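Fold these two proteins, one after the other.
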Amino acid sequence: MMQRMTTSPRTRLLLATITTTALLAGCNAGAGSDPVSTGSGTQGADGGTATDDGAGSTGTAAPGGSDETVRVGLVAEPASLDFTTTDGAAIPQLLLDNVYETLVTVDADSGEIVSALAEEWEVSEDRLTYTFTLKDGVTFSDGSEFTAEDAVFSLERVKSDAWTISLKAQLDVVDTVEAPDDGTVVITLSQPSNRFLYALTTRVGAMFDTEGVDDLANTPVGTGPYLFTDWQRGSRITLERNEDYHGDVPYFSDVEMHYFRDANALNNAMLTDAIDVVSTVQAPESLVEFEGGDYQIIEGTTNGEVVLSMNQTEGMPLADPLVRQAVRHAIDHQALMDTCWAGRGTLIGSMAPPTDPWYEDRTGDYPFDPERAQSLLAEAGAEGTALRLRIPTLPYAVSCGTVVESMLEEAGFDVTVDELEFPSAWLETVFTSKDFDMSIVAHVEPRDMASVFGNPDYYTTYGTEEIQALLEEADTGTEEEQVSKMQEAAALISEDAAADFLFLLPNLMVADPDITGLPENAIKESFDLSSLARG
């Protein structure tokens, strides 16, 4: 028996708006996705707060009609336009939902999974078979029709060698993908999976043209409301309205994404009317410059866990759990957040933000206790341990890195801070080669606990058999079991000191007062540019 649905009830994943728990200042970060995948990108990996409509926005875009260009300021330019082979948040932030679309997506207001390129879907009672009915009249930017053949091609391609990023593991659960006709796609899973449908809303669910994947790094071909037109590297990327879009045509005819390496330059661009929107404020203490009525300030929450990763590879200093525990006790998280991010953010204590159904406050697991940190170091015979803190040249990482250095040295560590150019040098040195002891990067992809801490080969180097078993049970069990097992997993990750969780980034945007459609919360991979308008 099949259950028909257009907003699958069993997958109302509770991406609820929690504006009362995490307000203020946003930043660019990156990485991860969801239970029992093997890895993820990081803003680390590419930059860009994986911004989304989140749960709520400041208005709804009027359909089409304007010849205006809207200019959006960001930090951390993509290294490529190909998110199938390049990790990081900046690429899906730009392209997902704007150039590429998915079969299903997350509703901006309700947080439910809703139809996108599939107008409806059915799920079998055993949760193994998903049947999607595709929308009619959808075309790619090259003029070809979107059919079930393209969907089969796209999903099978994720499981092939063509995709190289670790997030592809989210579709390992897929057994077969079939197209009984041009308008129907049938996906069969090897086992029930709570995360599968949600994964289809992320980059691994992006639909590609069978003839449009020859140059993904430079020429994306999608079905979305915008078309990629130009990339002036080191400066800006331009998208143009898709006049043949199958849905509501966007208000703005063009979107220019302007990239800045310096937080002050980003602010100055806004103050001098060189841009219309600051997508993620990189210097929260500078907000006073925008107060007083000339600008609107959007405050909300994100998925961006700022993680102090610890390389636990055998033979490394932080392979010793006592030394990792000492690190966690040595950090005063409130003081750190107050110092490096103007007190704007939320302390969480583990790898789950308050917008996840399995969130629990774990800030009490390792309270600030420098004497306990020194005692643990002595017990491990590791007084004066030298640590290389290798951080990306991103404002939050640079700002917080000096604070972490000071706190760890007070506890008895010998810390050297290296700033690595982002994305290229950081990706190569830390993310790929694992040539570091600690690093700081914000993991912003949604529901990324398993991606970041479920695979020992990922750069965080944590993924015990126990944690993998918990994540597997969370994925295959009932909804109630998913929540309880994910809570157990978050507790284990925290208690094992798999990393330290500095704070959760806030979503903080500044814009012209008449710009509407800005996301209050940034809890998805994409920044839905089609929602923007001028009111």
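Now the second one:
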Amino acid sequence: MKENTKVIHYFLVAVLLITLLVTVTNVKVDAAISESTTIIDDFESYASDDELKSTYRLWSSDGNAVDWSLSQERAYDGTNSMLIVPKEPFDSWIAVSQHFAVSDWTDSTGISFWIHNDADEPLAFNFDIKSESNAYGQEGTFIASLKEDGSSSWEENSFDSMLIVPEDFAGLIRIAWDQFTGKSWQCPQGCDNDLDLGLVEGYEFGYNPQGNSTNKVYIDSISLWGTSEGGLGDSLAPEWATPANTFNLTYSPAPIDNPLKGFLPFSDSAAWRIDDNQLPYSMEFFYIPLNDIMTNFNEFDWSKLESRVDEITSRGNQAIFRVYLDYPHKPTGIPQFLLDLGLETRDYDYESNGGPNGTSVAPNYNDENLQLALLQFIEALGDKYDGDSRIGFIQAGLIGFWGEWHTYPQDGWTPIGSWYGELAEHEDGIATDWMPSLANQRAIMQGFDDSFNETKILARYPTEFNRDLNIGYHDDSFAFQTLPPSLGGKDWHFAGRLQANQVMDKWKSEPIGGEMRPEIQIEMWNNDPPQYLGEPIEGVQGEDYYKSLELTHASWLKIQEVFQTPLEADAIERAREGSRSLGYEYFVPTAYVNSDSGHLQAAIHIQNTGVAPFYYDWEVDIAARDENGEIKEWTTDWDLSYIIPNDEETGDTNEVLLEWSSNTSNVSEGRYDMLVKVVNPLSEIHSDAKGFHFANEEQEDNGWLEIGHIEVKGTR
């Protein structure tokens, strides 16, 4: 329903000309809690208006007719709907009803139907059930749920005696059986309100044409909902689903090297990695100095960055990279033109930053020329690479040692003596702070957010100034300095920072990545559950890998050692499962396909059995494959990027239903397999691009997931 729907008072004349005050209150209900349906009438079986009128009969209070007929102008799940139009002189009440042999509706939760109120004013009406010659419907305050076409959620509404359909509304309405009571006009002394669903004889739509003289009403897809007959189960199903066109699919773990997730190596180690079968992967990481790219203000040479990205693409993988100014014990990444302009630098030689024999150079990050150059670079980087399918993620970088947004121990608070070597610079016994001002840090992060709308950016630390930006995070000491104090860690550990900055749920929209601390990358897989329990590092041992994953919802981790060091069989399996457990895993438990009435229809349920969403809106295709293997493809408007994982604590599946339809005019008669595929856009550049695979046995190596079969009997 429209959010600006107002509470409106309407005077309505019902069977007894009772004046009613109607109030509507909206509460959103997630569509995933809806239950399956069984079609009663979708109006596709009628060949003419005469056939329709032999089934649906009219009752009117004053003996005047309304026009009720088949319509192809508006419909929900096929070609036809039933159209009801008032005719002058207008009656005070009419009912269009269907009567049939006694039916058992006990195996259902309520009634569902699609309605379009084609008028600029709300429509007030009743839906009644006939059982044992009595009418049961809406009396007093009752609840019904509405779902407007195009919406993924139901709105639960409270009504008073009449159902109010908003102006120009088109969508589904559901009413549970416990909202039906005996109609007061048939028993003035009080009614027996027990509706016997085992003896249902019919139903009717009733409304007041005098009070709704401009309303054209379309009705379609009258259904029982919450049915379990035919094995449809208790999950959301499309309105057109039947037992015959429902297919139950089987879970099977998705491959380890699904795109944009899992463990990954450094790209420059390709020549000396061991067999990729030890640990398949779909991404590679590299560092690159800024002076390899930026030659002057607003002047750039992208050739070296392009070469690195293209090399990774040639292996069918997507790149992650970080640009740096200062990498301890490597040549400086500062562009020469900034040094020529007098950029101040500081030498340092910290043993923990790569060994005692080299000297590194840190720039004055608050230099105005440097700040300007960084903002220009970020804007240019976004202009060139935002949305580039060769790139999976970009780390913000640029600031601090390794571009990791810290200059520890030059942090403004470390005292002389607490650092085990000499401080490079200190004042009054405290290390000076080499980081940029908070204003400059904020500006750089804002620059990334402004410059990238598609490609995901990750920052090293959660902070107050990046909390509300569309930017994720990377934990570069994963399973070693991840857990918060409540789980034995520290408040400055990664999850502690997430908590302090109130971004524990940011993973639902922005990715979490990182790196496992190099010293623990091999030995932790010797333990079950994986955890580094070797010689203490800095006085401590490692953290539980899966507890770290549970808190962070990480999608990928750099873990170079397992790509270059042979592991024992048990350790390999733990590492493989650790990689597979990162990020998303999409399982399709149920699918529906249909080819009736000249239409192709398909729908799938999707559950995310992983720990994080898939963060990109990749194209999803549907195909029909004939018995000769020929494929006809269509592109859907489906978006998988918002499907969050199942909730293990509550048992909620967070299941999503996606629906699609087309016509059969360009499909010949015959039997077809119906297929679904998520398209890795990198495949347009390189044929070996890693394919997106669902966690289903029915998933084929070619990327297609087989979801069911149809028989096309002819075109219309």
